[in-house]
Amino acid sequence: MSGLRSFVVRRLLLGALQTVAVVLLVFALTEALPGDAAVALAGDQPDPARVAAIREAMRLDRPAWERLADWAAGLLHGDLGTSLVSGRPVSQYLADGFGPTLLLATLTVALLVPAGFGLGVLAARYAGRAADRLISSVTLAVYAVPEFALGVLLVTVFALRLGWLPPTAVGYGTDLLAHPAALVLPVLVLLSRPVCSLVRLVRAGMIDALASPHVAQARRYGVSGARLRYTHALPGALAPAAQQLARTVDWLLCGVVVVEALFVIPGLGTVLLGAVAERDVPVVQGLAVVFGVLTVVLNLGADLVAHRLAPRAGVAA
Amino acid sequence: MHDDTTRPLPFPALRRRGFLAATGAGTLALAGCGGGSGSDDGGGGGSPKKGGRLRAAFAGGGASETLDPHLANLFADVARAKALFDKLADYGADLSARPRLAEKWEPDKALDRWRITLREATFHDGRPVTARDVLYSYRRIADPKRAFRAKASLEPIDLDASRATGARTLEFVLKRPTAEFPNVLAAFGAYIVPEGATGFDTAPVGSGPFRFVSFTPGRSAVFRRYDGYWEGAPHLDEVEFLVANEESARINALLGGQIEYAHELNPTTARAHENEGRIGIVRLRGSAMQAFCMKTDRPPFDDPRVRRAFFLIADRRELVEGALSGAGEVGNDLFGKGYEYYAGGLPQREQDLGRARALLRQAGAEDLKVTLDTSPVAAGFTEAAGIFRDQAKKAGVTVEVRTGSKDSYWSDILDNGTLCCYRSGAMPIEAHLSQRLLTDSSTNATQWRHKDFDALYQQAQSTRDRTGRAAVYERMQRRLHAEGGFLIWGFADWIIGTARTVRGVGTEAPANTLDWARFDKVWLA
Description:
The complex is a heterodimer of chains A (317) and B (525). Chain A is an all-alpha fold.
């Protein structure tokens, strides 16, 4: 177990370094974009005197390293800084955007796991037969449809033609849970592609595992079909699936811009989009920190799960 | 920024889409310019019914939104600001100033002192609107430490010398004669707030037709009818402003009954629903000026013959059909078609490639190559650039289209390059001249600097008589039409969708004018 602990510690340190690197990179890239927050704010009134005044008021006239150092010093005290544009704390931006994002992600994962594993196991069990062919071809087809197209299609059919569901969540921003019907279509769109990749991964993993020597050995010992599948073959298939799942959760939490825009759900993706367009560097950096930490933690979690399920595939990293 | 204890100013309010507001994307009613009766019933008649809540979706807002009216920049900001606050004056459909909080204005003989009488109006907390509130508001806007958008518009006022002469009377002292001073009172963002007001996001108090209920930046703002409104209480009980940046989301929400008013729809959407009967389509015609800017101070456009050749290269009908999907009308290289003082008597310019070639030959500019800057910053920009490139080819001019970043586009093209796509929302012709075409103009994108032209502007501003002023403006416009730097090829419609129950939406109301996005006269049938 001490081997595992040192692995975790090493991974966390590496993750912290990675997050720092991401934040530095994001800062450098935002600086490299044409225009700054003052230019973006001045918009179609780029009177040079006004831009200079805005720049001074935002204290953007200081050198980049100084602004970065200031921000980093604040971060050490747990202060993510304030938005250049509104003067409100960045933490408030993150908190406001995180609610809808977390809600969507939770619902999506709650449906993704049973659906993905269930269909994957089903397809593997009937590999090569009608059920498998149906599942495989449908998942392949759905996977090929871009989210935006699928979203528009679902809205047109289920909201505008049939009138079963609301077309957007506009106006429900602060209280999405009170309007569950508005969440059905966004969650379906979010679910569509991850469920396909997960099903295919689980199916492939199961088929591989069922053909593997240790399962063959178990079969020779007379282990029953169901037990064979669920206690011997499935864990082998779970390891890659867990990593895929971590990537999906990461994607869901780091802002799903298309779905948020299409259904008017003001989550982290919307915050990010706005902040980049406004060159609101502190908000972009705050998001980079959050996304960096999330990615590190989720991947570490996935590796640990994989390690637990399939020790030999292990922890080589 | 963490160590900033006394941050002087947040700058909310500035998102992408809406830079359109003042310059960007105006809108104009004026379909038949002047033919309108001024009726503002947007479809359906009947007598107004009281009550109900109207939900209106706008593009633009984000988590940085604010209700500070002086920071208004986007259409969504202005729509909220005009519900909560008033200006001293506002623009009619022809962009002439109409009295609002100011009951009347009177200049002295020299046109550099104006006496304003305020009407009897109250703020939402019951306090009367006084001359001191006006002075406070204008001084706040003009604060040199803050970069409020309206500051440039208020520049003619000497605020230190201006003073209240009574509770409801004040005298503005101006730095120079300004015959068009009422335009300043109607300027974009020049709202009157109560004396001493600083924070606006938790409980803003104004004198507008609606009072504050709640506000979540980037999501929703709910306002309730103010029964004490000086012009009479609104018909609606409540209005809710919602943010939906995607056009598809706005139209879907409207079709699905989630909102009653969708601002800014695409021409194709409008066509698809125009006669379907599910929703109402309101076209605020001829509003957003669409142009190419030629920098008149540098080759090749420092030669007026080249500018005239470019005027003749443009097939305006094709540009309107292609870049605006037909939702607009052609321009005649002059700003403000249908506005007060517009030189409507000048002949409509048409494409004439033969003469264009001849002019280029005279100028020694055969085989001319120019770079046209464009950007996805506004609808139709990149399309217009492509169409113009093909038109120019027919006159032997090679146009290379260069696409720039939309976040910094306006600043990038101000002094750089030679030719660029440009657009502007509604503003008085006088404001267009003073902001863009004088030697010391702050956004002189055509680099048009002529002492005699400046002198004409001053002459107009010193001319008391309206007819006399109109004659001077006409002279200025003739010159611009002949050899200016703005190739103004069209005016885009601004398109609004409404639920079938909505009545009283102004149809002759360019964006930025009084009746645009005005909800106190709207009712639900």
